[in-house]
Design brief:
about 325 residues, eight-stranded parallel β-sheet, two-stranded antiparallel sheet, 13 helices, binds NADP nicotinamide-adenine-dinucleotide phosphate
Length: about 325
C-alpha cells in the first residue's frame, strides 16, 4: 500500500474514531509531528463493524500501591484517543482500581472495558462459579455491563460460553472472547475458535514470539474473529534484549521513535490484530505506548524488515 493510501485510510479511521486529536494537525505540515498530531490507528471488530483504537492498556496484577498511577494512565490514555482496557477477575486489585478511576474521572462511557472470568471446574459448577465471578467483576468495575467478557486461559469454556451468550443477549456484555498467553495452549485455542461463536480471542504475540502468526492469526482472519494481543513486550523481556541497540533509521518511516513503539507497531500492523494491550504502571510508558497507535503502519515488506533487524541481534 502506498504512503498516500495508508494516510488516506488512517484519516478515515481517525474521523470514524472521533479522536481527540485536532483535525487541523492533518493540514499543518509546518509543525513537527507529535504522537497526538498524527492520525489515530483504529481497527474493525469483524463481528460488528465497530472500530477501536489499536493500542490499549493491560492491567495484570495491579496492587493498591499503584492507585494514583493507574488513574492518571486511564485519564491520559483517553486524552490521547485510546479506549481499550484489559483486566481480569484474577488480577489482584486491578478491577477495583479501574472501577474507582473510571468513576472518579467520569470516563466509563468512553472506555472499552474487557475483563475475564474465573471459573472453578466444569459443567454446572463451572457455570455457577463463572456467574459469581462476573457479578463480582461488575461490582468492582462499578458498571452494569462490560464491552468484552473473556474466558480466562480457556478454563471452563464449554460451560461458560452458553452463559455468556445469554448475557450478551441480555445486554450485559457486548462481545464474547477467550484468552491464552501460552504457546502450549494454542491448539486448544484453535479448537475453541472452530467450536464457539467468538467475537474476540486474546493471544500472546510479539516480534520475539511469532508462533501465533503461524496458525492462530490466519484462522482469526478466516473466521472473522477480532484479536487482542497480550505480552507484546514479553513481560518487558524485549526491552532487556534491546538494551544498548539503536533503533534503525528507517523506523521513522512508520513514525516509530522508541523500542516500545517498534514492538507495538510490529504487532498492530498484522492484518488480523485488532488491538495490543501492553501493561504499564507509569504514565510515561503509557504515553510512549499510545504513540504507537498514531501515524503510519508497517506494510508486509516493512514487517519483514523489522523481523530481520530484530533477529540479527542474536
Ligand atoms: N492469559 C491471559 O489472558 C493474559 C496473560 C498475560 C497477560 N494478559 C494481559 O496482557 C497484558 C500485557 O501483558 P503484561 O503486562 O504481562 O506484559 P507486557 O505488556 O508484555 O509487558 C509489561 C511490562 O513492560 C513494561 N513497559 C510497558 N511499557 C513500557 C515502555 N514504553 N517502556 C519500557 N517498559 C515498558 C511494564 O513496566 P511498567 O509496569 O513499569 O510500566 C511492564 O513491566 C496484561 O497486562 C494483561 O492485561 C492476559
Amino acid at each position: 500500500m502506498s504512503r498516500r493510501a495508508v494516510l488516506a485510510l488512517s484519516r478515515r479511521d481517525f474521523i470514524a474514531a472521533g479522536a481527540v486529536v485536532g483535525a487541523g494537525a492533518w493540514l499543518g505540515a509546518a509543525e513537527p509531528a507529535t504522537p497526538a498530531s498524527l492520525p489515530l490507528v483504529t481497527k474493525v471488530i469483524p463481528s460488528s463493524g465497530e472500530r477501536i483504537p489499536a493500542v490499549g492498556l493491560g492491567t495484570d496484577a495491579l496492587r493498591e500501591g499503584v492507585r494514583d498511577e493507574i488513574r492518571a494512565e486511564i485519564k491520559r490514555m483517553s486524552e490521547l484517543g485510546g479506549k481499550v482496557i484489559d483486566t481480569a477477575a484474577a488480577y489482584g486489585d486491578s478491577e477495583a482500581l479501574i472501577g474507582d478511576a473510571l468513576a472518579a474521572e467520569g470516563l466509563r462511557e468512553r472506555i472499552f472495558l474487557a475483563t475475564k472470568l474465573v471459573a472453578d471446574g466444569a459443567g454446572e459448577r463451572g457455570g455457577a462459579s463463572g456467574a459469581e465471578s462476573f457479578a463480582r467483576s461488575l461490582e468492582r468495575l462499578k458498571t452494569s455491563r462490560v464491552e468484552l467478557l473473556q474466558v480466562h486461559n480457556l478454563r471452563g469454556v464449554a460451560a461458560l460460553i452458553p452463559l455468556m451468550q445469554q448475557w450478551k443477549q441480555a445486554g450485559k456484555i457486548g462481545y464474547i472472547g477467550v484468552t491464552t498467553s501460552r504457546g502450549s495452549q494454542h491448539s486448544e485455542m484453535l479448537e475453541a475458535m472452530r467450536s464457539y461463536p467468538l467475537d474476540f480471542i486474546q493471544v500472546d504475540y510479539s516480534i520475539a514470539n511469532r508462533d501465533a502468526a503461524e496458525a492462530i492469526l490466519p484462522l482469526a482472519l478466516e473466521r472473522r474473529i477480532a484479536v487482542l494481543v497480550n505480552l507484546p513486550f514479553g513481560r518487558s523481556s524485549l526491552f532487556r534484549e534491546a538494551a544498548g541497540r539503536a533503533l534503525p533509521d528507517w523506523a521513522a518511516d512508520i513514525d516509530v521513535k522508541s523500542w516500545a513503539q517498534f514492538f507495538l507497531k510490529y504487532v498492530i500492523s498484522h492484518p488480523a490484530v485488532t488491538c495490543a494491550i501492553p501493561g504499564s504502571t507509569q504514565v510515561g510508558h503509557l504515553e510512549d505506548n499510545q504513540a504507537a497507535a498514531h501515524g503510519r503502519l508497517a506494510d508486509a515488506a516493512m514487517r519483514r524488515r523489522m523481523e530481520e533487524y530484530w533477529d540479527r541481534k542474536s
